[in-house]
User: Which sequence fits this backbone?
């Protein structure tokens, strides 16, 4: 059994069996099976916090409970020897690689050049559908997985979700039906611009996650202009994020391109185009499969 002591603010000492442990103090937030959770670890779980002290305490409490649960389950996995299997070694290695890659991204995203006031103003002027003519669109949606080019062309020509539904069901394509409010500010500017003349009942096709699509039929439209200081603030955020994303992507591509030439790949995992593939290779000479 894993025993742990948790202290947040003024929680009293916790007794474990007949033996009482002293509550953590200072920068130690909690103690689990002899291991400590520090304030720094808790801050890492909550990188962005609101100004409201009450909300901050609630967010930190939830984050701490999640962190404690994670630590308990990790300790349990170790106590059961689950971390000693070959599969565990691969999973842990992958997790470490992803964490290191995120550290690289974070490092590369620093020192992004500031966006000038002129750039911000020009962006607002160039994209009225996102700012001065901003709209909130209430929509019914079909969320689709990646589909073939021919299916995508048919979807783009349709005028109603019923047509979309009929095609998907005929083609055996699974989808998720949902409802949402689309903010033209959060759409790509080119997509937002296409909504300018749309009316209720119009069908909108936008990119979805993992290469799929979202088919949205507009059921209501509400104008919500974003102007003056609010528009400039939003535009600055968008441009800064775009600049950071571009800077990180270019730097990552440079690193990968420089090192990729040194990598040797099993020919069985290389396609005709020279790209590595995830397909399982066939048996090598001498293999008895």
Assistant:
């Amino acid at each position: 059994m894993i025993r742990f002591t948790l202290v947040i603010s003024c929680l009293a000492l916790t007794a474990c069996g007949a033996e009482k442990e002293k509550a953590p103090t200072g920068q130690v937030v909690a103690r689990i099976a002899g291991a400590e959770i520090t304030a720094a670890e808790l801050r890492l779980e909550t990188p962005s916090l609101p100004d409201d002290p009450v909300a901050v305490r609630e967010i930190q409490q939830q984050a701490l409970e999640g962190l404690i649960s994670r630590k308990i389950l990790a300790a349990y996995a170790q106590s059961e020897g689950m971390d000693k299997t070959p599969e565990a070694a691969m999973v842990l290695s992958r997790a470490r690689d992803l964490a290191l890659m995120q550290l690289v991204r974070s490092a590369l995203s620093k020192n992004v050049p500031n966006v000038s006031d002129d750039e911000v103003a020009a962006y607002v002027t160039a994209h009225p559908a996102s700012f001065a003519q901003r709209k909130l669109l209430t929509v019914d949606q079909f969320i689709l997985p990646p589909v073939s080019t021919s299916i995508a062309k048919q979807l783009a020509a349709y005028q109603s979700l019923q047509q979309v539904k009929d095609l998907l069901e005929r083609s055996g394509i699974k989808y998720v039906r949902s409802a949402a409010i689309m903010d033209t500010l959060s759409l790509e500017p080119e997509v937002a611009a296409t909504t300018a003349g749309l009316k209720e009942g119009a069908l909108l096709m936008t990119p979805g996650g993992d290469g799929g699509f979202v088919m949205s039929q507009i059921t209501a439209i509400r104008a919500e202009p974003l102007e003056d200081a609010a528009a400039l603030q939003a535009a600055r955020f968008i441009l800064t994020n775009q600049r950071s994303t571009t800077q990180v992507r270019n730097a990552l591509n440079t690193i990968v391109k420089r090192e990729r030439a040194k990598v040797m790949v099993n020919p069985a995992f290389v396609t005709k185009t020279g790209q590595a593939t995830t397909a399982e290779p066939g048996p090598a000479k001498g293999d008895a499969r």
